[in-house]
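Fold this complex.
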Amino acid sequence: MEQENTRDKDFYWKLFKSTFLISTFTVGGGYVIVPLLKAKFVDEYHWLDDKETLTLVSVAQSAPGVVAVNAAIIMGYKMAGLRGAFCATFATVLPPLITLTIISYFYSFFASNHYMQIVLKGMQCGATALIIQVMYDLLKKQWSKKVAFPIMITLGTFIANYFFNFNMMYIVLVDALIGLFLLQDKKYE
Amino acid sequence: MIYWELFISFCWVGVFCVGGGYASVPLIQHQVIELHHWLTMPEFLDIFAISQMTPGPIGINAATFVGTKVAGIGGAITATVGFVLPSFIIMIILAKLLARYGDLGAIRGILNGLRPAVIGLIASAGVMFFTLAIWNTQKIPTNLASTDLAGLLVLAAAFIAVRKKIFGVIQTLIAAWLLNLLLSFIIK
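Structure:
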């Protein structure tokens, strides 16, 4: 995991810039940033592959803290060691820090301004399109492998989270246990 | 010292906030309202409203908001660093463990169980965001008359642009933002 510690300046600048912009345009908090980082790092820059990314997000998901920040930390670390982790974390945290500091002074203006609402709406639509693209891509690849168990886990997790609103922690725990006891075989990778 | 208190408070939230999303809310409420009286309940509820429409996870937003309120920009930075630091340490340790023990059968099994789960969670976020953008609800829309046609158009255009690789990730976000602004002048 530490083989990639020697990255050039250009890499860090790209990493910082893209993470910063994604974090800036990701409205609504939480899980949204995960597919956006995936779209950028995996599909556009090819710094990571699908499987690595899903593994890293699994770990980010299971640890304390905010998933968005955890995911940025561990992806940054995987790509460029401690410096990468630091760079990605800083870039993720900076936009909300700046926006919120400004907004905390102008809250009432912000909450009622018509154009502000339109601007936010536009960002939301763009982010949604990207999430759907990542989702479509991952589901298609998974389906094409034709292995029943992982497909059932994806479906079950979706239903538990979307329709039943189960606590994320329990969902993750159940999926981890299913994996531990039933999915150790190579064919489930 | 107020900075130290902010730092420790949000460190504590960072360590015990397990389960993602809004899991941090009761913890922050405990620290910020009940323990330290830094905010009142209505002020605390404002943070939610703001978090719904600004970038960033609610934990970071709350840290910034509380920090600014209590000790200005220095306070915002202190609280945010406090909140992120435990995550940083834990993630680096986990990444190192993963590199060393990732090949063990048990760990492989767990990860094989979790990877498809992540796909399911991404799908769940995707559907929620879709209905939120078009019908302004996170659940299955019941009132189809409230469909936001401009939003639907922007979304479709953005999707095609990404799918056909016309735009990259950042360009798509900015283009969607501009197109929606443009449409808002045309469709009233």
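Helices of chain B lie at 2-16, 24-35, 41-53, 58-101, 105-135, 149-163, 169-186.
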